[in-house]
Amino acid sequence: MPAGNVLGVFTVSTVNVNGMRAAAKKGFVEWLAASGSDVILCQEVRAEAGQLPKDVVAPAGWHAHHAPSAVKGRNGVSVYSRAEPSEVRVGFGEAEFEDSGRYLEVHLPGVIVASLYLPSGDVGTPRQDEKERFMAAFLPYLIELRGKAEAAGCEVVVGGDWNIAHAEIDLKNWKGNQKNSGFLPEERAWMSRVFGEAGYVDVQRKLDPEGPGPYTWWSYRGKAFDNDAGWRIDYLVTTPGLAEKCTSVVVERAASYELRWSDHAPVTATFDFSPE
What we know:
Blueprint: E1 9-16, H1 20-26, H2 28-34, E2 39-43, H3 54-57, E3 63-67, E4 77-81, E5 87-90, E6 103-108, E7 111-117, H4 126-152, E8 155-161, H5 185-195, E9 201-202, H6 203-207, E10 234-238, H7 240-243, E11 246-251, E12 267-272
Parallel strand pairs: 1-2, 7-8
Antiparallel strand pairs: 1-12, 2-4, 3-4, 5-6, 6-7, 8-10, 9-10, 11-12
Helix pairs in contact: 4-5
């Protein structure tokens, strides 16, 4: 567990890049270079380090860690941090998912930060079964992680694409999606357990409990982006102590459809540990 405390202002961003090779050509590199965040979490990288440009694999000013999937062209998560981690962990101890490119955790002074890409699922298929197995194994780990962090006097942030809209205010067309993966009653109940039984906090909803949105993903089909017919499935989830320090959460929605470099938007949260 990391020693020391988070000091001053601490900022974390998360984004599903929907294929890093394409995102790097369309604007991710420029976004990364302009970011003021202390940590950036990426999901759905879908590439190994050798397939990516140097300014993505090891950009100046960052300590970059990547966890690709054993299945080429699938999944993949990354963490970029300004400070060098004291420990880096790939996976969360469940054999089936250790090399699936779905979880990467770094230990920084006073805080553990993890990038999560939860399976998307598809009702009535093996993909949904995989999602359910992942959820069943991941919840106990979240509980264990929070307990260890509390014992060490540090906080936790798990950010990423959770692939579940928790409540009706988290997607535009909730009535038409009640039988679809991502908004199934059992998936929503599992998210409630993350925020209840496991004791984590959805910092977006802490600051903006009413909604609707702000959405973080829009289909490329039709006019979903132009009509803001999206889903909020990208979350920054923290331990309660860190949530109390959250001063803002911003969804960095592109100004227009043409300026998007992913079908997701980055989500950035700021935490202020400055002395009062």
